[in-house]
Write a structure and sequence with these properties.
Strands 1, 2, 3, 4, 5, 6, 7, 13 and 14 form a nine-stranded antiparallel sheet that branches. The chain has a five-stranded antiparallel sheet with strand order 8-9-10-11-12, with no helix packed on it. The radius of gyration is 19 Å and the shape is globular. A hairpin with a 2-residue loop joins strand 2 and strand 3. The longest helix is centred in the first third of the chain and has 13 residues. The chain folds into two domains: about 200 residues, no CATH class; about 70 residues, Immunoglobulin-like (Sandwich), CATH 2.60.40. It has about 280 residues and is mostly beta strands. The protein is built from three helices and 21 strands.
């Protein structure tokens, strides 16, 4: 927590210029982990991204809320009922708005029908945020991409970060994004259960070699946790890409994963600290 507060103060200092142009004290902020999955520029590296709302801007007669990414004006959005529309800003040019979220969707509905791989709603449920408020959760798979999933939390946005809804492919630099948490002002509203932290540095540290590893990986039926540094391990949780814990055990050897579908998972190893590793299951 102390490390997160240090990061929060650092980020707050960087946003002074934004405050000067009318950023509300109740601005929304999404803290996001960026991860390079190929080079260039930094193979297998991680980096911090934060998206913060700013002043109101009027475009073609419609009022939008501006969105900054790491202090650069990146986009703007507006709400129309349960739909959210986004305009991207590239080289000082505002592009046509796109429908980024539709919180009226129900199980079996499709989104981005004109895309190469539309999103299909696989489950609709309810979560309770850190303030005790119920929020709709919509889970998706991508048609033709069985290992790609995403979820939305109503009023929060995508598990990939607010601006990256429906973006299933890495950027040109090979980067993908993972939402860590969402704030309104200094009030924490939602934390991604996979990482359970707002601290990008902590997540990045836990992704490097710390004496804990999973083998085999990819795996089919059994995995083991290799613990070279004899760290205390109290439990092991396997989490799918929607943040759901699909297996929990106190074992570190011969963990049976045979019943889990093929795809990518996160393994959270709990002990002195929570360490997250990636797991690929093949059949």
């Amino acid at each position: 927590m102390a490390k997160f507060l240090q990061n929060f103060r650092k980020i707050a200092a960087l946003t002074v210029a934004m405050l000067a142009v009318g950023l509300s004290v109740n601005a929304q902020t999404w803290y996001i982990l960026g991860e390079y999955i190929w080079s260039p520029p930094n193979p297998q590296g991680t980096f911090e991204v934060y998206q913060t709302t700013g002043e109101t801007v009027t475009i073609e007669g419609l009022d939008y809320t501006s969105v900054y990414e790491n202090n650069a004006l990146k986009a703007a959005y507006r709400n129309d009922g349960n739909q959210v529309y986004i305009r991207w800003r590239i080289e000082n040019v505002w592009f046509d708005e796109i429908l980024a979220y539709d919180y009226d969707l129900e199980e079996g509905d499709f989104f981005n029908d004109d895309d190469e791989h539309p999103m299909m709603v696989t489950e609709v449920s309810t979560i309770i945020d850190h303030n005790g408020m119920e929020r709709k959760k919509i889970e998706f798979s991508f048609v033709g991409l069985p290992d790609e999933t995403e979820y939305w939390i109503e009023g929060v946005g995508s598990s990939r970060g607010f601006l990256y809804s429906g973006i299933y492919q890495p950027t040109d630099e090979g980067a993908i994004f993972h939402l860590l948490c969402y704030h309104v002002g200094e009030n924490l509203i939602y934390t991604n259960p996979v990482y359970n932290t707002c601290d990008v540095d902590e997540v990045a540290e836990n992704m490097v070699n710390n004496g804990l590893s999973i083998y085999p990986n990819p795996a089919k039926e059994i995995i083991n946790i290799l613990n070279d540094n004899n760290l205390t391990v109290s439990s092991v949780e396997i989490i799918d890409l929607t943040g759901r814990v699909v297996l929990s055990t106190e074992k570190t050897d011969n963990i049976n994963i045979a019943e889990l579908p093929e795809g990518q998972y996160f393994v959270r190893i709990n002990g002195e600290t929570s360490i997250v590793k990636k797991l690929f299951i093949t059949k």
